[in-house]
From TrEMBL:
InterPro entries: DegV_domain_contain, DhaL_dom, DhaL_dom_sf, FakA-like_C, FakA-like_M, YloV-like. It comes from Nocardioides albertanoniae. Residues 7-202 form the DhaL domain. SMART domains: Dak1_2, Dak2. This is DhaL domain-containing protein.
């Protein structure tokens, strides 16, 4: 099957994330239903960004597994009512594509996938409402099915027709939902869905959709009167006061009873997922009862409760209490985490297979309480997520966020060593960036596969020396590779060498041996040795 490859979905993931980032404020301003909390654009963005991040981490060749990773990222990272519905749309659509793309006509499979997605979204919502992203998606599926009746139609034709129908359906949402007509806006979730369909069309064709959907009416949505006065239902008379979300580990058979338990508690009930993992969303007054229902069905975790009155009121003065400067660092091991904390950073811990998502980084920025934030990603994929989080924080929260381009943990250590919160923000960022860039870095690792490297062929178990991200040495022992790399690093001059022991050098023997070699061959150079506890790399090195 040549028309659709995993690269297409990688392009779509990037385009969709960027598009929602650009349209996020517009969509947030449209958000008046079911609660005017101005977060639909942000929730859709964070959901698709989580899916994109999960797909970036996928390194396999099986495109079906890649789609599964994308779908799971959306499910686990879904935010808010709209994000949970989007996760179900993505999951249903991609499941149909995975089933049929190798055997059936691609255009027909895409049309059927849109129909499956629409049906699944309607089924996931406790009380489906016309004039929302549900009806917009159904219109897209209807037009896709009409288009594919032409046997000459290609996938691009189907998606173009679907996107056009979605834009048309969006324009009619105020006629279907009185709350939209009263506010003079179209549906926020439907607008977000149009942005996503346009992004998919662009991924297929390489061209922007034409005509572009109008921005619709995006007035400033005033904060309802009564907020903060104890009248938490002022945002909608009789409406529930809380949003409850959680992930749920449960058998599929338990979900019908869960729905029955949650349905009478409130509204905006959405339960999506499958294969033992579910994302549950509901608006209620009785938070405890909503969580108890999850406990009865299985194991709820990552429980998140939002009080609507506080959330909306907080949007009016969310910047008032921010002050100072914070540094957020991604640490790839427990020892590294302690080093960064000791230098005053807020730490997100992880490793090669546990990198922070855009939403996790955004949460850290928001929770810092600072008006100026410096992020040390210390890893190339994490840098991409950090830059996306920075754009969101700057646009939505007016927080000044700078991402230092640190590609390795040792560059991050070098940068935070020169951090001075008392100096001007721009100067601090400039100094940290310059120091990180001047820190020449290397590492040693152990090959787990047979491969051809820039330094020659390697076999499983061989020691590999890494310099600036490239393999420069294949050897039989780590110490020999480490001293070779360090000799190359220090050949360009330097006054300070930093050595960071990894998990596979827990007793520090490798670091001590390299430090001894350095003292014998470069006695005027200072050396600092730390226990980092990082995976994959028994020793990290830098020269400044």
């Amino acid at each position: 099957m040549t028309e659709v490859k995993l690269d297409l979905f990688r392009r779509f993931a990037d385009l969709a994330t960027d598009a929602l980032a650009s349209h996020r404020e517009e969509i947030d301003a449209l958000n008046v239903f079911p609660v005017p909390d101005s977060d639909t654009g942000t929730n859709l963005y964070l959901t698709i960004a989580a899916a994109r991040d999960r797909l970036r981490e996928f390194t396999g060749d099986d495109w079906r597994e890649g789609l599964r990773a994308f779908s799971r990222g959306a499910l686990l990272g879904a935010r808010g009512n709209s994000g949970v519905i989007l996760a179900e749309i993505i999951g249903a659509l991609l499941r149909r594509l995975a089933q049929g793309l190798d055997q059936e006509r691609a255009a027909a499979v895409f049309a059927d996938a849109l129909r499956n997605a629409a049906n699944a979204a309607y089924a996931a919502v406790g009380e489906p409402q016309e004039g929302t992203m549900l009806s917009v998606l159904r219109a897209a599926a209807d037009e896709a099915e009409t288009c594919v009746e032409d046997e000459t139609a290609h996938t691009r034709d189907v998606m173009s027709a679907a996107a056009g129908a979605a834009r048309d359906a969006l324009s009619h949402t105020p006629e279907q939902l009185p709350a939209l007509a009263a506010a003079g806006v179209v549906d926020a979730g439907g607008r977000g869905l149009c942005v996503l369909l346009d992004a998919f069309e662009t991924a297929l064709t390489g061209r922007r959709p034409s005509p572009q959907a109008p921005a619709a009416s995006t007035p400033h949505i005033p904060i309802p009167t009564g907020l903060g006065t104890g009248d938490e239902h002022a945002l909608e008379p009789g409406g529930p006061a809380y949003e409850v979300m959680y992930l749920l580990d449960a058998d599929d058979a338990a979900i019908p009873d869960l729905r029955k338990s949650l349905q009478p508690l409130g509204d905006s009930l959405v339960v999506v997922g499958g294969e033992g993992i579910w994302n549950v969303h509901v608006h209620v007054d009785d938070v405890g009862a909503a969580i108890e229902a999850g406990i009865s069905a299985g194991h709820p975790h990552r429980i998140h409760v939002t009080h609507f009155a506080e959330q909306i009121a907080g949007q009016a003065h969310r910047h008032a209490n921010r002050s100072g400067r914070a540094v957020i660092a991604f640490a790839a091991g427990p020892g590294l985490a302690e080093l960064f904390r000791g230098a005053g950073a807020i730490v997100i811990e992880g490793g090669p297979y546990r990198r922070p998502t855009t939403s996790e980084l955004l949460e850290a920025v928001t929770a810092s309480g600072a008006e100026e934030v410096i992020v040390l990603p210390n890893d190339t994929p994490t840098r991409q997520s950090a830059e996306a989080a920075a754009r969101t924080a700057e646009d939505d929260l007016d927080i000044s966020v700078a991402v230092i381009p640190t590609r390795t943990q040792v560059q991050g250590l070098a940068a935070i060593a020169v951090h001075e919160p008392g100096r001007k923000f721009d100067k601090d960022v400039l100094e940290m960036t310059a120091t990180a860039r001047h820190a020449r870095h290397g590492a040693v690792t152990i090959s787990n596969t047979r491969a051809i490297t820039m330094a020659g062929p390697c076999m499983p178990g061989d020691a590999l020396g890494v310099l600036g991200g490239d393999f420069v040495k294949v050897g039989q022992d780590l110490e020999g590779c480490a001293t070779y790399v360090l000799a190359r690093l220090i050949g360009g001059g330097g006054e300070l060498v930093t050595l960071v022991s990894g998990l596979e050098d827990a007793n520090g023997e490798l670091a001590d041996a390299v430090a001894t070699w350095l003292a014998a061959n470069h006695p005027t150079v200072d050396v600092m040795v730390y226990d980092g506890g990082q995976e994959r790399y028994p020793l990290l090195m830098s020269v400044e």
